[in-house]
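Continuing the series of single-chain predictions for the mutant panel. This is the parent chain; the variants come on the following pages.
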Amino acid sequence: MANNLWQHPVWRGIAALLFVFCAAQALAAEARGETEPVPNPMAAFAAEMAERHGFDAAVLEKTLRETRFLNGIIRAMDAPATALPWHEFRNRHITDSRIRAGLQFWIEHQALLERAAARYRVPPELIVATIGVETLFGKLTGNVVVLDALATLAFGYPRRAEFFRGELEQFLLLTRELNREGGQLGSGIRGSFAGAIGIPQFMPGSYRKYAVDFDGDGVRDLRRVADAIGSVANYYSEFGWREGEQVVVPVDVGNSPLDALLGLGLQPHLAVAEYRKRGVVPLEPVPDQALATLFVTQSAAGPRYWLGLNNFYVITRYNRSINYAMVVHELAQLLRQGRPAAP
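Parent structure:
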């Protein structure tokens, strides 16, 4: 149940700790002959925004104090759906109804998708699949006030507070920019529980950096299909998508020792030829000189091993999860297969 941020029991406890900390700091400062008070986190953040970006510190601090602390967000952050075993996560996202909806989305927006694919050299099925996994093709864009979500996570989720303070900063800058463009994106804009916005669910920092005005109306509005399609394509392009290259390759690992190969991160770091030398055998043709990373997914029948290539890594830049990248890739393949052959 959401409450006014500083009325919530968690925040009352934080406020009490802050009071004790500030009092101790004040006594220490007084002993040193100093009188500067120690600011609370919201006041400090507002002051930084004023100094760095010209915001009114008093107005911004008041706005932040009036945000709502959302308990459910904290719980959701600690139990992400992407942490499910691969086969369970897959079954949530790869369904006949989603494939049909994706094919219909492709038909309805074919001209936009072809234009985005031509400009950014990113396949239309990847754009459609990403939007399908993120928001069911724009139908589920989130109903949480983004400012509330980001304030909750920036000041109430210590494990990732630094990241979300950065996204809160980006959101405030974004709303100012888009309002100057005429986009009317106010503090009441709604999105995901993590603060992602619009049809493609861009975080504010990604929105500022990668969103494009693809319909030519002068505003980057990710609540509109054209801008969403162009922005997803631009995002993948900026992160280095390579047209026509493979994404993943299944492998047979036999009895090879894998401890030294697994867990080295998502970024490709070892040539396929080197994997072959270590007993990892690709089950599909793949260039020996291609860099790859070895990873495992949990199917209902047990573990399956894969080599992720450059384009796999690019998909993980959208969401840094193996499950996410795999489901986007598979949905894209199924959508491509379901398209009627071109005349």
